[in-house]
Amino acid sequence: MTETLKPQDEEQLAEVVAWAAAEEQPMDVVGGGSRDALGRPPGAGFRLDVSALSGVGQYEPAELVLSAAAATPLSEVEAALSEYRQHLAFEPVDTGPLLGGAGGTLGGAVAAGLAGPRRIHSGGVRDHLLGFRAISGRGEVFKAGGRVVKNVTGFDLGKLIAGSMGTLAVMTDITLKVLPAPEETVTVLVLGADDREAVHAMTEALGSAHDVTGAAHLPAAVARHSRVGAVAGAGGAVTAIRVEGPAPSVAARAAALAALLGRHGELAELDTAPSQALWREIRDGTLLLFEDDVQVWRVSVPPSEGVRIATVVAGATEAEVYYDWGGGLVWLALPPRPDAAHDIVRRAVGGNGHATLIRAPAQVRAAVPVFEPPPPPLAALSARVKDAFDPARVLNRGRMYADL
Description:
The protein is α+β, with helices and mostly antiparallel strands. It has three domains: 1-181, Uridine Diphospho-n-acetylenolpyruvylglucosamine Reductase, domain 3; 184-284, Alpha-Beta Plaits; 286-367, Alpha-Beta Plaits (2-Layer Sandwich). Helices cover 33% and strands 24% of the residues. The chain has helices spanning 10-23, 74-82, 96-99, 106-112, 119-122, 158-161, 195-206, 220-223, 229-232, 247-261, 272-284, 303-317, 342-349, 362-367, 376-389, and strands spanning 3-5, 27-30, 46-49, 56-60, 65-69, 86-87, 129-136, 141-145, 169-177, 179-180, 184-191, 212-218, 238-245, 266-270, 295-300, 320-324, 329-334, 354-359. The strands form five sheets. The protein has a five-stranded antiparallel beta sheet with strand order 4-5-9-7-8. The protein has a four-stranded antiparallel beta sheet with strand order 12-13-11-14. The longest helix has 15 residues, at 247-261.
């Protein structure tokens, strides 16, 4: 039976982790619980609940910097930012709807490292992480970075922490760069293009001078599951190109994109509210929830490889697919299989990117590699990094790889 430990502050948290290291007792670290089903399933005898470390701390809208405790719900952070018309520009993915969990936390968003459609324009999670405080697997408190970029010195540990799934340290406080939220959003829709034609259209849009902040393609089978009427009712595939900013600029750029992309298919347009709804669906993978037991992969590859990989996997598994990041992020939904078709997916990727199994039952995630298996030199380097932060392997042991 798993025992839950719930420290109330950073000092207690350090004491608990130091005890676990001394006793070599592995612990599953959890904040809001929205990502419990992401990664290999937990199996430690202790559950380290850090949800008490919550609350927005220093927020300086004029300086575009926000600090908050790691277990602060993302909804609370976003509410604080919205008062000043600011946002997290990397669009953190909300895995709650896809994985059946509660709303996510700020620490969970950084630990998972999953950025949304705007990544191609504004960068990923690690590009917005200015600094953090954390407890190492030894129970030692340390900090990295600062509140402004020019004060960030030494090793850029944020690059290691972002995406580490809590296997290196337990974050207690996080400082992020925030940006002004767009005044308006317009999405230009190209209707009826096949996958390859859509990638050409997205590449053309992203290569233009029109400051595109999102480019995605929904084949007909996926588009019809959208809750946005103009997308679900399009009667075919939908390619979405997003522009954001001041109203006059958005209108001018949307018109220019329409003129540029008209040769790829019939055009339509979404204004701000339906645009935001559509991009949330694209961001969170909820377009693929058309069956309760569907298994979901998220595959990051060069945009030129996306259609080939999707075609290979779909041909072997009857997967449904859609594309984000201009074709560089492929979402795959597969009928349930005991191995999640991981050999098929990884052979299709063939070293040209990495594939992550986002959604599958615990027994499947325990049996197959959830994250892209690293080549031996990189695996050895990862082990040395883990030894430096958590030599007793007490933090989220096995969450990413069985031997780490």
